[in-house]
């Protein structure tokens, strides 16, 4: 079995707010092996972006409290590193692609200059060599006229092109882990398909592991090998994408698959999930999904542990038993 | 909790409620300081039948919003004609009277479409200012508003609250109630679920379906979410760069798209529910995609 690039172990994290501490992640655990693509799936408030930002330590230090747990990147705990050590890793060993390419890029700098800046910082090479690397980096993200695009400003480019630039920046140091935080959410579907292919191809070529954050089950099924399902700050289920999509074990995952209309299905009834996403300040004492769960039983008032074997794990008291099918 | 896809045969025979005839709309935009003409609607013609859900799909820049604005009377066409219930409501040059209250719209993001400083009562009664005093009296009473709130799944006391006191899904319910308060015949739904969390989307879709039956509504459903379109719409028009490239029954469109762009659009949509659904990731190890 390949070694893990990233291990998140029982991570519990809170935000300091005017209304007191709000626990946004509770005991989140998962790992990513070298070169593997893992999807982190969840709705708003599930903690998917917070997890990603915690890994790259992008959360504001003053208001973030890691209560317990560890984030091991290449065997070292990210949470205890100094800022100087972190700077060596962030950007260089961990690349980050943000949702909105326009805000991730400097609007007042040409694309070429931005890439040049980053490449010289990472590789410490001469201007001439850097210029060649910029050219190659742009070609690698399938930009057909690299000379022209290098002279352009972000606002002159389409959303898809901008996201390619952000990917080129993130991949320029050849990181071991690429974090892609909803990289296609702001894009049209035909462009989304191209960007997904691009990320996958680059990851395979360079052996980069990818942590892919999304709320779109279709996207996960397209490019991830394993997935982690988050709900209200907890991992409710994780395992190989194929298995989960075919046989979801957690009632939330099942309900989600029935509630989201998929193009390949027609005529099958759509089943809404009753209720609303929980307020993180007032969570139920037991299972976080219990208030909306049709299979709820008395036992669900105590919190179910994440149990499983190998790659597969589920946090549900029903797991291992026959769930009444309805 | 379960709503089956409706029988669409009855709709096929129904009379037209909205007709666009060779509608044209151009905009002048500045590109690097030079004025360039963009054709946002290029000879667009289609008919929406009474009681159906007509989907308009296309990517950003395809002209979906321009068409919505034209139908709502927010923009005037440069050419062509739009008729509603047999009467011309938009044509170039003159401004025909607009049937206020008969055509309403639900916007994409209820966080921005509801005035944060208005209580729900005020939000709901505002559209009634544009309709006749009789209609206003009939539907603007507290009892009528409470009933309407109940029909969209909100409690009576919601009437005196502010939008920020509600969740995203509830806010969209308020926006839907606001559209229905004048008892319109036609409602334009502009991506009504795309700002909502996926677990809440289905609730709103089911609500729209039951309201359609209850109020006898016709919907024009603007979306880029092909999964929702397939589930919700009877017929679909595909827009590409301001042109309507294909109009077809939903099933026909998804099983046998005739235009090249429609095929490209459908191929791009990631799907998961088929056991044999194509996945990018498994093609990768042997040489990439």
Automatic annotation (TrEMBL), chain A:
CDD domains reported for this sequence: ABC_NikE_OppD_transporters
GO molecular function: ATP binding; ATP hydrolysis activity
One GO-annotated biological process of the protein: peptide transport
Pfam families, per database record: ABC_tran (PF00005), oligo_HPY (PF08352)
Keyword vocabulary terms for this entry: ATP-binding, Cell inner membrane, Cell membrane, Membrane, Nucleotide-binding, Translocase, Transport
Keyword Nucleotide-binding among record annotations: yes
Residue ranges occupied by any ABC transporter domain in the UniProt entry: 6-257
Alphabetical list of PROSITE patterns matching this protein: ABC_TRANSPORTER_1 (PS00211), ABC_TRANSPORTER_2 (PS50893)
Compartment(s) of residence: Cell membrane
One GO cellular component term: plasma membrane
InterPro entries: AAA+_ATPase, ABC_Ni/Peptide_Import, ABC_transporter-like_ATP-bd, ABC_transporter-like_CS, Oligopep_ABC_C, P-loop_NTPase
Membrane topology: Peripheral membrane protein
Similarity remark: Belongs to the ABC transporter superfamily.
Protein name as catalogued: Peptide/nickel transport system ATP-binding protein
Organism: Alicyclobacillus macrosporangiidus
Lineage, uppermost ranks: Bacteria, Bacillati, Bacillota, Bacilli, Bacillales
TrEMBL record, chain B:
GO biological process, one term: transmembrane transport
SUPFAM superfamilies xrefs: P-loop containing nucleoside triphosphate hydrolases
CDD domains: ABC_NikE_OppD_transporters
Domain of life (superkingdom): Bacteria
Keyword ATP-binding: yes
Gene3D superfamilies per UniProt: P-loop containing nucleotide triphosphate hydrolases
Name of the protein in its database record: Peptide/nickel transport system ATP-binding protein/oligopeptide transport system ATP-binding protein
Pfam families membership: ABC_tran (PF00005)
Protein family: Belongs to the ABC transporter superfamily.
SMART domains (UniProt xref): AAA (SM00382)
Alphabetized UniProt keyword annotations: ATP-binding, Nucleotide-binding, Transport
Residue ranges of domain ABC transporter in the record: 18-266
Keyword Secreted: no
InterPro entries, alphabetized: AAA+_ATPase, ABC_transp_ATP-bind, ABC_transporter-like_ATP-bd, ABC_transporter-like_CS, P-loop_NTPase
GO molecular function terms noted in the UniProt entry: ATP binding; ATP hydrolysis activity
């Amino acid at each position: 079995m390949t070694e893990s690039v990233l291990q998140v172990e029982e991570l519990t994290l809170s935000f300091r707010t005017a209304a007191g501490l709000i626990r946004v992640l509770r005991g989140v655990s998962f790992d990513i092996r070298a070169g593997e693509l893992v999807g982190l799936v969840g709705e708003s408030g599930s903690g998917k972006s917070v997890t990603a930002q915690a890994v790259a330590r992008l959360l504001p230090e003053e208001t973030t409290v890691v209560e317990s747990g560890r984030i091991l990147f290449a065997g070292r705990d990210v949470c205890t590193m100094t800022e100087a050590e972190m700077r060596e890793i962030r950007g260089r060993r961990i690349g980050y692609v943000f949702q909105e390419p326009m805000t991730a890029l400097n609007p007042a700098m040409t694309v070429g200059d931005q890439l040049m800046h980053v490449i010289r910082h990472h590789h410490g090479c001469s201007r001439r060599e850097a210029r060649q690397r910029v050219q190659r980096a742009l070609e690698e993200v399938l930009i057909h006229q690299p000379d022209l695009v290098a002279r352009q400003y972000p606002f002159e480019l389409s959303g898809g092109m901008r996201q390619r630039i952000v990917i080129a920046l993130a991949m320029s140091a050849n990181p071991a882990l690429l974090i892609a935080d909803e990289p296609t959410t702001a894009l049209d579907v035909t462009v989304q398909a191209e960007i997904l292919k691009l990320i996958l191809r680059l990851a395979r070529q360079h052996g980069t592991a990818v942590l892919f954050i999304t709320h779109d089950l279709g996207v996960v099924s397209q490019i991830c090998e394993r997935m982690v399902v988050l709900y209200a700050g907890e991992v409710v289920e994780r395992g190989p994408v194929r298995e989960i999509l075919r046989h979801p074990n957690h009632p939330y995952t099942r309900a989600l698959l029935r509630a989201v209309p998929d193009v390949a299905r027609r005529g099958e009834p759509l089943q809404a999930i009753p209720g609303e996403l929980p307020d993180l300040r007032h969570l139920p004492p037991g299972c976080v999904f219990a208030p909306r769960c049709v299979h709820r039983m008395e036992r669900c008032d105590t919190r179910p542990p994440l149990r499983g074997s190998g790659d597969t794990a589920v946090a549900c008291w029903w797991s291992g038993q026959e769930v009444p099918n309805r | 909790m379960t709503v089956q896809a409706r029988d669409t045969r009855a709709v096929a025979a129904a009379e037209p409620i909205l007709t666009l005839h060779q509608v044209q709309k151009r905009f002048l935009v500045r590109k690097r300081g030079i004025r360039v003409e963009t054709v946002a609607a290029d000879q667009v013609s289609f008919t929406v039948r009474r009681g159906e859900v007509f989907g308009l799909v296309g990517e950003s820049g395809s002209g979906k919003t321009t068409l919505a604005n034209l139908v709502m009377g927010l923009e005037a066409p440069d050419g062509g004609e739009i008729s509603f219930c047999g009467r011309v409501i938009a044509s170039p040059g003159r401004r025909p009277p607009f049937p206020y209250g008969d055509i309403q719209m639900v916007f994409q993001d209820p966080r921005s479409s509801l005035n944060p400083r208005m209580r729900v009562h005020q939000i709901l009664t505002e559209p009634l200012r544009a309709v006749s005093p009789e209609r206003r009296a009939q539907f603007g009473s507290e009892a009528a508003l409470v009933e309407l709130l109940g029909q969209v799944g909100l409690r009576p006391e919601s009437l005196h609250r502010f939008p920020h006191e509600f969740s995203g899904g509830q806010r969209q319910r308020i926006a839907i109630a606001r559209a229905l308060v004048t008892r319109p015949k036609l409602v334009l739904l502009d991506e009504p679920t795309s700002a909502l969390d996926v677990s809440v989307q289905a609730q709103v879709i089911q609500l729209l379906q039951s309201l359609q039956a209850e109020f006898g509504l016709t919907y024009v459903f603007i979306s880029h979410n092909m999964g929702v379109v397939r589930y919700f719409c009877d017929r679909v028009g595909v827009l590409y760069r301001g042109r309507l490239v294909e109009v077809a029954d939903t099933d026909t469109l998804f099983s046998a798209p005739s235009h090249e762009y429609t095929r490209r659009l459908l191929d791009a949509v990631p799907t998961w529910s088929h056991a044999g659904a194509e996945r990018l990731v498994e093609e990768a190890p042997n040489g990439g995609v």
